[in-house]
Amino acid sequence: MNYRMIAKSIGNLLMVEAACMLPSFLVSLIYMESDLPAFAWSIALAMLGGFALTCLKARTPDLYARDGYAVVALGWVLMSVIGALPFLFSGAIPRPVDAVFESISGFTTTGATILRDIERLPHGILFWRSFTHWMGGMGVLVMMIAILPSVKANTIHILRAESPGPTPGKLVPKISQTAKILYAIYILLTLAETILLLLGGMPLYDALIHAFSTAGTGGFSNRNLSVAAYGSAYIEVVITLFMFLFGVNFTLYFIAFRRGGLRNALRDEELRYYFFIALAATLMIAVVNYGQVYRSPLLSLRHAAFQVSSVMTTTGFSTVDFNLWPVFSRLILLLLMFIGASAGSTGGGIKVVRSIVLLKTVQREITRINHPRAVRAIKINGHVVDEAVVSGVMAFFFFYILIFVSAVMVVALEGRDLITTVTSVVATINNVGPGLNAVGPMGNFAGFSPLSKIVLSLCMIIGRLEVYPVMLLFFPGFWKKGI
Amino acid sequence: MKIIIVGDGKVGFNLAENLSREDNDVTIIDKDPEALRKADETLDVMCVRGNGLNTGVLADAGVREADVVIAATTSDEMNMVCCMTAKKLGAQHTIARIRDPEYASELGRLKEDLGLDMVINPEQAVAGEIARLLEFPSAVNIESFAEGRVVMMEMKVAAGMPIVGMSLQEMTRRAPLSILIGGVVRGDEIIIPRGDFVICAGDVIYVVGRPYRVIQFFRRAGVQPQKIKNVMIMGGGRIAYYLARYLDEMDVGVKIIEIDEQRCVELTEMLPGALIIHGDASDESVLHSEKLESMGAFIPVTGHDEDNLIAALLAKQYGVGKVIAKINRINFSNAIRNLGIDNLVSPKITTANYILRYVRGLQNAVDNPVKTLYRIMDGRAEALEFVADEHTRCTDIPLKKLRIRPGVLVAAIVRRNEIIIPGGNDVIKPLDSVILIAYETRLNDLSDLALSEE
User: Fold this and answer.
1) What class, spelled out in words, does domain B132-220 have in CATH?
2) Domain B360-449's class?
3) Which of A154, A172, A386 sits opposite B25 (nearest CB)?
4) At the top level of CATH, which class does the domain B228-350 belong to?
């Protein structure tokens, strides 16, 4: 392990975070509210800590795969702690565990909150909450790679550990260039959404907050009722569309724009599955809800589409209290939470492409029983998926479920009802935000004990970083020297 | 520049490593996922898995916008076809590795027909390098600039040489020779020596100057550069063939020991001037009976690194003055260097260096071209030759007034036939060739020599 280089990278990360607090600082300056000193102190602390770490001299600049994992896991934990400082200092969230929970929920783009009344918070704090979504969505380390010039080749390990999906790759030969392109697409889409929301009559401040939350597929709003507060069909449709767009693999945008290969992009297998799963879920929910909950078929479709898009991309906005929906609709939503968005998007969950690989593996096993000597490779987009990747996906799935079950066991100690207990973990490990019953769209996580909050916070980071970086920290072999 | 490398073997990897470090956009194409994985994890390059002959794969790698396509797979034919396809698809320059001597004779026509811009034959290149090393046997390594008017020699200082313990000032005072010591490697450290620098035993020094001046310096330093009169080559492969031809031109006697009788007959046909011995050169008695100890140089170039190294060590024990061994696996070159063998050559490294030089030349082809470039001190420093022209910023200013970039040394200025080892009052004039040594920094242009005025 190259500890010094890891510390250096984390130092850079903290400085980037400090810079990212500036917009929130500006907002609180404009509104002149009580949170101004909180941001000033947080920025100063992050700057100081970051600078101190970057001053370390590393013997070699080499980072290997496990160093990359360590940077990402430790970096995210530290970043979340620093990100919680404005909440603490401003008194918006007085208890440290709660503040860190909120900050982690922000960076991991979960959108689960422990706040009961959001609207009384200062503007700067609310802006920061949503901005953490935006940073965490594409990845703060990816941002670091994009803007810091001194980045070496081996940062590919950092990019891999932070980006979601089984095989994150580069778009262009240079890694910093790749990171820049990803952020450029990200910024463009965010801008487009902000403008469309403004056209729908949303105030600029609200438009920015919702655009950031959608972009990171987070789900923090500045209104207690989330998107439902605006009561506008136009705004709901815009947000539905953009939630879906941010759940698409960003590589496809690059392919579609740069090489004029819109057709190639649309032919992508994962995109197709993603689209059809969303479509099928929307239709099923709309049909079941029609008559039982909603009178008008169009209204039923609109709410179904919004919730499916919100839950599948793991954003977690809500226009209705889907906790009141029929069991079948709720179960579909629960299932979508696990499937999640596409790899290489800002969404969470297991990811569509992994689900495809798992399905195809099952299919292959069945073929193998019928034809014991058959040689079948698993293909995606016509390309053979490496066997190492296939077994990696299966191990990932098992590990994911294992963590899920363990977390449920711990949260169960609270003695709440089964649905609340299970969905609180589902909603956090998949970075969705709202679950069902007490943690439903109209509820929050405030009532949990500190132990549960810590476990759920861990679940969020594990879900966002896709299990391995965080879990590695708990294995002693990871820290041993020379092995 | 956008560069595509087809074939991720040792040459491909080495090229990718150097070119990507120099801020080029490098894409590697290979069929083997294992090889690509290594490149992907350690280098800042893009990897495309597939056959380099496939137009789809080439297009995926961005051949249309590519400035250079380098084909370095193991197959000559594949390299040729790959370059041809790449050129048709829109690549600007193509470089192919072609090693079969059968093609060598028709290289000119092949190049034209296939649209190849550069062809490299690793065996021939490495033979050329060995021949050059034999020309100046006392140097560990030698590079030439300005059409051979200036050379840079690498020399290891041994204990007991008169220059040990002398400072550079003292040396010039005793014998003004107009040479320059451009760099010293001491242990792991690289030093740009100043006047008060004292030479120690064990240092490796880089001496720049006119060839005869440098030889004079060597003589003063206690090294007797003798012309090598006869050379024994172990192994009769392609390198031996090319080398024998070069040595024949240099009027050096050649003795080749080859184990395969059939090949011996072939060699006698192709090399009338050389003495071909049929025998196993790893057998000490054969070497002994062929009078290894009386040879000026011994060059093992068989396909087995181990045999080459053992034979080289044996030759050193017999007291052969100059031993140059060929090795294929370069991973352990640092350990091998300490064994006492004079030089190690590797066809793969030589090939990569040649291509690198060509690509760099392309990069700078617009103006102020790098005429020559050598990587020295294990690649930690570069010796470069630039030609100044009227656009160069730092002409006609005395060097002492220029704010020269740290880590850069002006080693020599060549003005027509005059060679200046520059002092503070000398100036660079248009049309001069300027030889620079740059440590851990990179120069693209002669104007980069001076820090800008701001």
Assistant:
1) alpha beta
2) alpha beta
3) A172
4) alpha beta
DSSP secondary structure letter of residue A119? T
Nearest residue in B to A66, CA atom:
B41
Give span(s): CATH 3.30.70.1450, chain B: 132-220, 360-449
Q: Chain A residue closest to B25 (CA)?
A: A173
- Alpha carbon B108 to its chain centroid, in Å, reads 24
* Listed residue (A364, A367, A451, A460) closest to A414, CA to CA: A451
A409 contacts chain B (CB < 8 A): no
Task: Report pLDDT digits (tens) over B9-22.
Answer: 888 888 888 888 77
User: Which A positions 168-187 lie with beta carbon below 8 A of chain B?
Assistant: 170, 172-175, 177
- The 3-class SS string of A259-283 reads CCCHHHHHCCHHHHHHHHHHHHHHH
Counting other chains too, the contacts that B165-171 makes at CB distance below 8 Å and 24 or more residues apart are B165/B198, B165/B199, B165/B200, B166/B198, B166/B199, B167/B195, B167/B196, B167/B197, B167/B198, B167/B199, B168/B193, B168/B194, B168/B195, B168/B196, B168/B197, B168/B199, B169/B195, B169/B196
Structure tokens of B274?
A: 């050389």
Give the predicted TM-score (pTM) of the model.
0.77
Element (H, E) at A383: strand A383-384
What is the number of residues in chain A? 483
pLDDT along chain A (483 residues), means of 10: 81 88 90 86 91 80 77 88 90 88 91 85 89 87 72 65 69 80 90 92 90 89 84 89 90 77 82 93 91 86 91 88 88 90 86 90 90 85 83 90 93 90 91 86 86 91 86 77 53
